[in-house]
Fold:
Amino acid sequence: MAAKEKEIKITEKDLADFSVLYPEMTNEQLTELALGDKAGINFSSYASSSLSPEEMKNAREALIDSKKRNTALFECRYFTPAAHVLASLFNPCEKLADALINESIKGLSYKDIGRFSSSNGVLQGKSDRVYASYLAGREIISGMNKEENVLPEKYADMAKKITVKENLLNTEIFFNMCGECNIYKTFGKNGQDIMKGITLSEKSSFIVRDKMVGYNESYFSIALEFEGLTVSLAVVPNTSAVKGNAAVSLIFADEIAVYVDSATKYFDTSLLTAGLKS
Structure:
């Protein structure tokens, strides 16, 4: 439900001031101009005596709605959400912006987002709703920082086929997974790349830790979204009690649950974390 907006009051002085600029307009028309001015929109775009007060009102409300949408997009752009295990699967700020603008998740609307929402805590709670909507009741089963494996056997077999190779210029990851998928990659500081409808084969590889462009010392992630299954590999800060190289998380998300485990249990990750201390 959208927050109730504070009522804007128009005084006789407001009308008098605008009547100097637009002497041919009625008080009803001048009221619409004054309301637009106080709302901080471009009232001059509908300041025409040929428009009825109702037409001016419609134009004013459309401009205010557009301003609210742009404000929500701006706030999402500069929002830094709290770390979340699912952040390697999609850009949480983009998912939040989409949910707000399209009002596709109950309780989320761009109409509720004002300036400074990104810094006053408002967006974090709404971001949590986006994650909850993505899970749709599915449990997150995590084996990070635990000895036991949590991936079901069919996913563990897939994980064991992932290989990493290094050459003089970079490091390559071979997922050895086939089929059409969407790909979401993150790298460096706020870097991302999204590719849709890509067909992978056993020969497909992903270049990471590129030594020529500064990618070598950055955290990164790769998510492959197949129909009914999303697989993600992410190099992340080590949160275990024993500090050392960065950690590598592996996610298999299907219609039943989201399984998160340490990739080191399934294949050699040393080339992905070498030198990345945390």
Q: What stands out?
A: The chain is about 30% helix and 20% strand. The mean pLDDT is 93.
